[in-house]
Design brief:
The chain is an alpha+beta fold. It is 50% helix and 24% strand. It is built from eight helices and ten strands. A hairpin with a 2-residue loop joins β8 (188-192) and β9. The longest helix is centred in the C-terminal third of the chain and has 31 residues, at 319-349. 22% of the residues are buried.
Amino acid sequence: MYIVIAILIFAFLIVTHELGHFVAAKLFHVRVSEFAVGFGPALLKKQKGETLYALRAFPLGGFCAMEEDEESEDPRAFTNQKWWKRFIILFAGAFMNFLTGLVILMFIVPKSAAYTTPTITGFFEGCPYESDFGLHQGDTLYEIDGQRVYFASDISVLLSRSDSETRDFVVIRDGAKTELGGFKFVKVPYEVNGEETLMYGIEYGVKETGVLANIKYTWNGALDFVRLVWMGLGDLVTGAVGVKELSGPVGIVGIINEVGTNAENASAAASVIAYLAAFLAVNLAVMNLLPIPALDGGRLFFLLINAVILAVFRKKPDPKYEGYIHATGFALLILLMVVVMFNDVYKLIF
């Protein structure tokens, strides 16, 4: 059941992405020949005006078909629109994914009666950071090494991102930002339930949820997702993680199936899966905006470059070269997807 749910989540997120393109195109009166949910043979279809709406056999995505022939003489073709209109249409897919993640979080957050804040409410006995580091009860951790702290859970994540023991903090103290820098900040041993455990020894506050708190928590949650995606990409570029550690659709479906199966009850499973769906939605938004050929971000990049070239040299670049680059990028993306899928299947089997 959870495997089916995971597949439907992927299909839903891809359809919402294409819906973003579709809505933006319609707002600018761009001709859309077909909007389809799924791929393959059409099971249901209805022609309404100039657009064919179709439900196709394989519900693993969808597409929004616009006239994109550079030689088209149709004034309503996508390629004949002003650059800023095309920019909005291309950007709308990622925006819709981000909005989807935000909406999912809006339904999840109110279910929590309270959440932990990055505001210090106390220290463990003997905690060195109360005296040596200069943290005070009532301080709210705002930044760590230039990275914003949204939730108490961010603190351990951000502190683990560097091997350096010296960290720079910004705290909100008495309503003003205070910088605390150049201090060593590492876990120290404490005895917890009869066992020695490495901890920072800082206690954080708990805040009840409310309408305004929920809105803030939801927005910060989405921004936190964006940062997590960028961190993952940074780790990939620096070599901190390898391609073998990446997960594609197969691996993610496996994760969703695992957390759903191991949840205490159906309600807990629904909450965790919804949280993962929100993260996937934001992840898709960020990934689609990367300036990689064949992705929306790559098309946006070339759109801006072409607009600059046209403005400076009064000559439109030959679109065939951009087409070659996108085709090459698409082939490389497919190759990467095959490698990641193979790794996912291998990890599931072995």
